[in-house]
Design a protein that fits this description.
alpha/beta; Aspartate Aminotransferase, domain 1; 2 domains; four-stranded antiparallel β-sheet; globular; binds pyridoxal-5'-phosphate
């Protein structure tokens, strides 16, 4: 089988809006912060190999935990695997339930699933607004009380791409009451170039912190569903007790083991992201569009007619995300794609700007 890294510009058969305009080739999907590249050939060949043993229940979980733990100087017992990091969000919520403490704090805006899942598991949700598009950990501290159980942080933050830094994080952890669990979702952590990005895994030993990472973004395995959590061993064990046996499938484990071996592929992905970011910044500046500088693989930009603009871009077969549902109706989030996809997006944007 011939494996190529640089596939065609993809089809988007599953995006409901796309149906309206057809799902032929030529659609540019920049709406879900997916990796524009297929996974590493090493991941693909590991998955192909694993296919021959799917008559058996999944194995390799311990090996993957060991490899992941080693990258962070942690033991396999400090690692939990999940059916996507979405499952890990649920495990935390299930494991931390307590009748006296039933409040979850999130930032506003943030990844929608924190609130959805929290409500499913019976929590009340308190939302703390950003300041200047950034999370202010101090404001989150002020929002805590004796009913607070979990704080969900996302760093870099979806949808702004902004980060909080290590110094602020340490201050926050030191002031936080012990009964409050902090979840730091670092789904986009690989993409940041900031030297001050928290080395958050180092705090799992002394603080009630769960770090979430995923293979869905930088490792290009979104469709396989696999993420991992890092925390102190007893916290991990509580989370796993609420988990179905074999919830992470055999192909996902194999793919993750293959993907994590391929540093070269990861570097290619990150380099493409840097170049795409520079290209888009430049184009936005040229067009007088204001945007939020990003540490992730997506950019939030402002447009007074953001919703209409998003709809119009569909007609050019470019799919981006209007941020109305995130409480930012004058913003659009665009994922950074391959060079030619970014170009197509900017061409379409320029066309629409002449019309609007
Ligand atoms: C994409 C994303 C994830 C990834 O979820 P998976 O279930 O691992 O695919 C997690 N958190 C945030 C904020 C995301 O944007």
């Amino acid at each position: 089988m011939k494996l190529t890294i640089d596939g065609k510009i993809g089809q988007i058969p599953f995006y409901p809006k796309a149906k309206k305009y057809g799902t032929d080739n030529g659609w540019i999907k920049l709406a879900s912060n997916e990796n524009p590249y297929p996974p590493s050939p090493k991941a693909i060949s590991a998955i192909l190999d694993a296919l021959f043993s799917v008559n058996r229940y999944p194995g390799g979980e311990y090996e993957l935990k060991k490899v992941l733990g080693e990258r962070y100087g942690l033991a396999p017992e400090n690692v939990v695997l999940g059916d996507g990091s979405d499952e890990l969000i649920e495990l935390v919520l299930k494991a931390a339930r307590s009748p006296d403490r039933d409040v979850v704090i999130v930032t506003e805006p943030c990844f929608a699933f924190y609130e959805i899942a929290s409500k499913i598991y019976g929590y009340r949700v308190v939302k703390v607004p950003l300041e200047g598009m950034k999370v202010k950990l101090d404001s989150l501290l002020k929002a805590t009380d004796k009913r607070t159980r979990i704080i969900f942080l996302n760093n870099p933050l979806n949808p702004t791409g902004t980060i909080f830094e290590e110094e602020e994080f340490v201050r926050f952890l030191n002031e936080l009451p012990d009964e409050i669990l902090v979840v730091v979702d670092e789904a986009y952590g690989e993409f940041t170039d900031s030297k001050n990005f928290p080395r958050s895994h180092r705090f799992t030993k002394d603080y009630p912190v769960v770090i979430l990472r995923t293979f869905s973004k930088a490792y290009a395995l979104a469709g396989l569903r696999i993420g991992y959590g890092l925390a102190e061993a007893s916290l991990i064990s509580y989370m796993e007790r609420t988990q179905q046996p074999f919830s992470v499938n055999a192909l996902a484990i194999a793919g993750a083991l293959g993907a994590i071996e391929d540093q070269h592929h990861l570097e290619m992905v990150l380099e493409n992201n840097r170049k795409g970011k520079a290209f888009l910044y430049n184009a936005f500046k040229e067009m007088g569009i204001s945007y939020v500088p990003t540490e992730a693989n997506f950019i939030l930009f402002k447009d007074d007619n953001a919703r209409v603009l998003t709809e119009m871009l569909y007609e050019d077969r470019v799919v981006v995300r209007w941020m109305g549902p995130y409480g930012l109706p004058e913003y659009v989030r665009v994922s950074i794609g391959k060079i030619e996809e970014n170009q197509r997006f900017i061409e379409a944007l320029k066309r629409r700007y002449r019309i609007l």
